């Protein structure tokens, strides 16, 4: 069984930064992809950033140049560094991992609010 626990969300002013963490508990063998998604009020769930096949990264156009996804293999943690935050980045952010056997797991999310 795999569990994901997100942390690092909170209230930040526009232009500020936050770093989200996703701790992965359980077997991490054969992870094929990991990523961060978000859902803003009244909007659909969307991918923010993802790492596929070990080292290929993708970013939503809206966050390119501002967000960075990374992973600490030794600590089993996935990070999302968010810079130059905008009010439209306000959302619940979720961590996701995929395995070779097709299984996928989600965290419960962490709320990011960008406001004065």
Descriptive notes:
With 116 residues, this protein is mostly beta strands. Helices cover 0% and strands 56% of the residues. It contains no helices and 11 strands. Strands 2, 4, 5, 6, 9, 10 and 11 form a 7-stranded mixed β-sheet that branches. A hairpin with a 3-residue loop joins strand 5 (46-52) and strand 6. The mean pLDDT is 94.
Which spans of ≥5 residues are poorly predicted at pLDDT below 50? none
Biggest sheet, open or closed, and with what strands and sense? 7 strands, mixed
CA-based gyration radius: 14 Å
End-to-end distance:
40 Å
Overall spatial form: globular
Tell me the strand percentage band. over 45%
Mean pLDDT: 94
Report the count of strand segments. Answer: 11
Helical content class: under 10%
Question: Topology as H/E string?
Answer: EEEEEEEEEEE
Briefly note the structural class of the backbone.
Answer: mainly beta
The tally of helices reads 0
Short précis:
This protein has no helices and eleven strands.
Using brief descriptors, characterize the structure shown.
single chain; seven-stranded mixed β-sheet; globular; mainly beta; 116 residues
What order do the helices and strands come in, and which of them pair?
Blueprint: E1 3-7, E2 10-12, E3 18-25, E4 31-39, E5 46-52, E6 56-59, E7 67-72, E8 77-82, E9 91-99, E10 104-106, E11 110-114
Parallel strand pairs: 2-11
Antiparallel strand pairs: 1-3, 3-8, 4-5, 4-9, 5-6, 7-8, 9-10, 9-11
